[in-house]
Design a protein that fits this description.
Elements: E1 5-7, E2 11-24, E3 32-47, E4 54-64, H1 70-74, E5 81-85, E6 109-112, E7 119-120, E8 128-141, E9 144-157, E10 160-162, H2 173-179, E11 185-187, H3 197-202, E12 216-230, E13 233-246, H4 275-284, E14 306-316, E15 319-328, E16 336-337, E17 348-349, E18 357-359, E19 362-364, E20 370-382, E21 388-396, E22 441-449
Parallel strand pairs: 7-11
Antiparallel strand pairs: 1-2, 2-3, 3-4, 4-8, 5-6, 8-9, 9-12, 10-11, 12-13, 13-14, 14-15, 15-20, 16-17, 18-19, 20-21, 21-22
Length: 450
């Protein structure tokens, strides 16, 4: 539902209300419904000077996130994942079954995952984001306006699966059997999400462990210039200063490349867990500290404090020239250790988020400042009637810069395997190839219209 209210000739108000629900089905659990999601919206614009050249505006809205079917395929369906295994052959085609072999080893295949689907919290609801924008625009000359605005976004609720056992409890003799049978719970995790009471009863050291409230807060101030095409030229330009803080990225983990919306590893284990360092590190060789993962003031991986964008166009008769400039802060760097339960790398911070790593270019807290300049030239040849032939040339990375775009931040590739030899190199544990800005590229083309 949406409406427009006008008060006099200068104030316009746009209220709205949206309702959403979603039902997911897996091959074990079906009919999982996320209902009662009401999304109000409110916007207003005011002609501050009464001459139609100055606009003061604001809007607030709540936006729900539709869950992709990855959740249905993995959390609501039968799935078994082998996290560690022994094999008879070097090509890993003949797994060794569990049982005593040479050396007295009995466990050769370690399986994990929601074999019979996740346990579902019947009161779980969709995640959502709140957004608030306030600003103004002023036409300072014909066809040209400048503006400024403030943007605030925060995740008000997260939908994630949790395992209510501290990570060290999977290794302690008194609690390992309890945690080995724990099913993941699909819920809206908060600091009030309980730890498995049987674990605390078996070992009181785990009494002080809890989950962290999911926090994702984005604040930005942006200054803009908008020049509509007039007198042969047009331009769009902006500068944005922003901060992205919290402990929850959302659907995608940019730091380790995990794309499992609603079932990421961020809440698989309690983050406010002093036993990770006091028990897990000295007794079982854990790396990093899971408490960094729950820090509500952490610098999230997509934080880019400074961003500049400029796009200009000049048209004269049948010739069109354009330029685009994009520049911005580099990505924050956080050392990431392996997960002791899953064996996977890039999971547990070894320092505060954004605290930096030792790279081949020295100790850095961010990748270098990024910039790119692209230009285009296009010429239109009229061929009679509606027929036009346009020849064009594009040049990307005009100055052939070779800026480092990422460093390998994983301290180890898997639990217990030793240091990652590529740590701090101009590579990535997520993307293939050297992480250097693509060299200058030139593209020639032609377009025929009729």
């Amino acid at each position: 539902m949406q409406d427009t209210w006008k008060i006099g000739n200068r104030l316009t108000i746009d209220p709205g209300l949206r309702y959403e629900q979603e039902t997911l089905n897996g091959n074990v659990i079906s009919g999982f419904s996320l209902k009662n999601n009401w999304a109000p919206r409110l916007g207003a614009a005011f002609d501050a000077t009464g001459d139609g050249r100055t606009k003061v505006y604001g809007n607030w809205g709540r936006f729900y996130a539709r869950m992709p079917n990855d959740l249905a395929a993995r959390a609501l369906s039968s799935e078994v994942t082998v996290t560690r295994g022994d094999y008879f052959d070097a090509t890993l085609t003949q797994p060794i079954p569990d049982g005593t072999l040479a050396g007295g080893q009995t466990t050769h295949l370690v399986q994990s995952g929601a074999v019979a689907g996740d346990t579902i919290d019947s009161s779980a609801k969709m995640s959502y984001i709140n957004e608030l924008v306030v600003g103004f625009e002023r036409e300072v000359m014909p066809n040209t306006s400048i503006g400024a605005r403030y943007i605030h976004r925060n995740i008000g609720r997260a939908l994630e699966d949790v395992a209510n056992c501290p990570m060290a409890a999977y290794f302690v003799d008194a609690t390992s059997s309890i945690c080995g049978t724990v099913s993941y719970i699909l819920t809206n995790p908060t600091s009030a999400t309980p730890i498995n009471p049987a674990v605390v009863a078996a070992d009181p050291d785990f009494a002080g462990v809890s989950f962290a409230d999911p926090v994702h807060v984005y604040n930005a101030i942006e200054i803009t210039l908008n020049r509509r095409l007039a007198n042969h030229w047009s331009a769009l330009a902006s500068y944005r200063w922003s901060r992205l803080r919290g402990n929850f990225e959302g659907f995608y983990r940019d730091d380790n490349g995990q794309s499992d919306p609603g079932i990421s590893s961020l809440y698989d284990f309690p983050q406010n867990d002093p036993t990770y360092a006091s028990i897990g590190v000295p007794q079982f060789g854990f790396e990093g500290d899971i408490q960094f993962l729950g820090d509500p003031n952490g610098i999230l991986p997509l934080d880019r404090p400074h961003q500049v964008k400029v796009a200009g166009n000049y048209a004269f008769r049948d010739l069109n020239l354009g330029v685009a400039i994009n520049a911005g802060s580099g990505a924050p760097l956080t050392p990431l250790a392996s997960n002791a339960v899953y064996g996977s790398g890039g999971e547990i911070p070894s320092g505060a988020r954004g605290s930096g790593i030792q790279t081949v270019d020295g100790f850095l807290t961010r990748t270098p400042f990024q910039s790119d300049v692209a230009v285009q030239a296009a010429y239109q040849i009229r061929m009679g009637g509606a027929r036009r032939l346009t020849v064009l040339a594009d040049v990307f990375n005009l100055f052939n810069q070779q800026i480092v775009q990422s460093y390998d931040t994983w301290t180890s590739l898997t639990f217990g395997a030793g240091p990652n030899p590529n740590f701090g190199q101009e590579t990535s544990a997520i993307l293939a190839g050297p992480q250097i800005q693509a060299p200058r590229q030139i593209r020639l083309g032609a377009r025929f219209s009729f």
